[in-house]
Amino acid sequence: MNKILIYQIDSFTTEKFKGNPAGVILNADGLSDEDMQSIARELNNSETAFIFSSANAESDYTIRYFTPSIEVPSCGHATIAALYAKAQEDHLESCILRISTKIGILPVEVKKTDHDYQITMTQGAFTLSPAFDDDQTKKLLSALHLNSSDLEENCPIQIASTGHSKVMIGIKSRKTLNELQPDMSALIKLSNEIGCNGYFVFTFDSDHRETLTYGRMFAPAIGITEDPVTGNANGPLGGYLVQNKLVDVQKGYFEFNGRQGEQINRLGTVNVKVTVSDGKPELVKIMGNAVTIFKTSLSL
């Protein structure tokens, strides 16, 4: 029997049972797609990361990501979790590792600090789709149970991506954000129409000096009713804010902290760094802390 080494990691936090939980399988070589999907379904996190030996000289590891229902091309919090678990298991010093994913080979920085680690992930290329038309906007507002007056006027509703796309929806009030009770069936139907599974609702309504935004992310079409803290939403949000000129860019650089998970008591913080060239996002990085919940093994 194969003994599979499993970590459970909470990402974007240093406090256990906060942030976003992810499963990590450190020795996934030899696992079939069916095996991985079964393990992800059993662990029942929004994503589980599977680390394989590298298949080429350009990368150190290959990582694949599964929700409880499907494989996804990339995942921010599960990448933070995967490299944090790897650092813990192998007692890594500070280094830069290159991971091969479905969206390409990405550098990930492991920084050792006071017997712990911070992980910085370079995300995929930033893209931004045209703003929703009136019909799409009407369907979205209906599914989210929002009124047009709830929307932040300067924030167009658009699909943004750094490898795994999300719809960006800016609203005025954090109270409204925390009271959202979306119609999940309607969101699934809309996902099929627009070709995007994730909906990131955010607000600038923050009472925390070092926090620019609060957000919530819903992706029922891929089995995620609500994701606690989403790297692949906060990262693209940075690019979205820059490209729409909603923030000040200083010397080709923009950085902010986004918080998420408040309403479901899994609060976490994503640090987002955007390198800007000619007014457009050139490179998006997300940084986060993490904490180990448990380590175990599974015999297959």
How much helix, percentage-wise, in residues? 10-25%
Order of helices and strands: EEHEEEHEEEEHEEHHEEEHEEEE
Shape category: globular
Q: How many beta-strand segments? A: 18
What is the average per-residue confidence, as pLDDT, rounded to a whole number? 97
- CA radius of gyration: 18 Å
Q: How much strand?
A: 35-45%
Parts with pLDDT < 50 across at least 5 consecutive residues: none
Number of helices: 6
Q: Describe the largest sheet.
A: 18 strands, mixed
| Secondary-structure-derived class | alpha+beta
Intertermini distance: 5 Å
What can you see in these coordinates?
By secondary structure, the protein is of the alpha+beta class. Helices cover 22% and strands 40% of the residues. It is built from six helices and 18 strands. It has helices at residues 33-43, 76-90, 134-144, 174-179, 184-194, 231-243; strands at 3-11, 20-25, 48-53, 61-66, 71-72, 95-101, 104-113, 116-122, 127-128, 158-161, 166-171, 198-203, 213-219, 224-227, 253-260, 268-277, 280-288, 290-299. It has an 18-stranded mixed β-sheet that branches. Strand 2 (20-25), helix 1 (33-43) and strand 3 (48-53) form a beta-alpha-beta unit. It is globular and about 60 Å long. The mean pLDDT is 97.
